[in-house]
Amino acid sequence: MLSEREIVERFLDLKLQVHPDVVTYIKEGRDTCLVDRIIRGLPENAVVVSREHIPDLKAERDGTRFLTDPELEIITGGAGSSRGISGFEDSLHYFRDRYNRLSTMIRSRHTAMPVEALLKSPGKYRDQECGITGLVLNVRGTSNGHRLVEVEDSTGSVQVLFNKKKEDLFADAERIVPDEVIGVRGKVSNDGGLFFADTLVRPDIPFNHAPFTSDIPGKAVLISDVHVGSDTFLEESWSRFADWLQDSDDVGYLLIAGDLVDGIGVYPGQEQELVIKNIHEQYDAFGTMLRDLPSRLQIIISPGNHDVVVRGAEPQPALPPKFTGSFPANCVMVENPCLVSLQGVRVLMYHGRSIDDLISMIPGAAYTQGGDIMVEMLMRRHLAPTYGKRTPIAAAKEDRLVIDPIPEIFHTGHIHICGMRKYRGVLCVNTGTWQSQTSFQKRMNIQPTPARATLVDLQTLEPKIIDFT
């Protein structure tokens, strides 16, 4: 297998520059002949080798979209995927897996050296810019108003100082949260005690990311947070929604991102706000609602934090058959999170509990701007970056919350406020709720946007919000 340096030198010998994405593609493909094939196919006036010069890249990209069923495929998060936690050692594997995968994403845009090497010979690097990549251990402000971030890789840790006078960099540093993986470029102090940051790099979605679109007609509807059993469930709005689906022959998929029912014992005093006080009966009622929908629909269902019949720690297992016996045969149970393919269009479904944590840690973040929080997840390429907050995480050997591969559609719920953003080719949709304002939301002054469904055309990825209030 060619190293990155060997790949770059092959092109430099021909006076050609090469895009980092091409280097990564060649290296990961392990095809030693690919460099020669690219060179043979270059136009005479080529100066920079880019993705468009990789032969058969589109054919390969399209082909990998359909591994089993070209209509609906569960890529990750199928029922039975989650495993129990065997012990403390699993958490070590969990963070190592996170670091390895996210640092690899950063590497195409950022050259890093081991922290240990930097600390052993600080004088060697004092006057030259160098880079490190690591997991954020902690973040704090200094007495002078700067930002101090401890970053750790597999060899050691170092304190990184973000100077408040570098305003753009400092604004980015204020949004650093514990346990995310970042790359930093800068210079080391004389004694090696501090690393002065000049540049911050995150895994992020590549600038040149081009979303896949379906070659055939198809539309999907995205919803979440139905909360059947609650006295604030909007039954009439749901009936209008069901009638609309009956008349919408071009809709083939319905995706429901968690909190199907209101659950039992989720918060103190909940029993006073329930019209169905038995968890089995709640799911039976939801099943009746699903059976009234068109049988032509393929319905993909994942759990949320109110679906207490599965563990609350993420990734959450799919709802068990014991509670879904009343659901129609056209339903597919998946885990939270999961990645599904609809006619080749990848949809990342995640209920969104970590939105609470990110809002509490990122300056300016708000529940009314759910789309912006989803972008923060995409920038970090992780659904729940910080461990040990309100979002319980099952730290298994593999970090299933890493966002890889990149989806075309990112679908969340949880906060009951409909929101939407497009970020570097990814459509971010938070689908609101089917529940009117609860007593808790009144106390928190949260105004939900209920009874809305998001319709997405799989050929164009253009969304449309339809209001059923």
List keywords for this structure.
469 residues, OB fold (Dihydrolipoamide Acetyltransferase, E2P), globular, 5-stranded mixed beta barrel, single chain, 11-stranded mixed sheet, alpha/beta
Provide a brief overview of the structure.
The chain folds into three domains: 4-55, no CATH class; 106-201, Nucleic acid-binding proteins (OB fold (Dihydrolipoamide Acetyltransferase, E2P)); 219-467, Purple Acid Phosphatase, chain A, domain 2. 27% of the residues lie in helices and 24% in strands.
The total tally of domains equals: 3
The overall pLDDT, averaged over residues, is 90
Largest sheet: 11 strands, mixed
Q: What is the annotated CATH architecture of the largest domain?
A: 4-Layer Sandwich
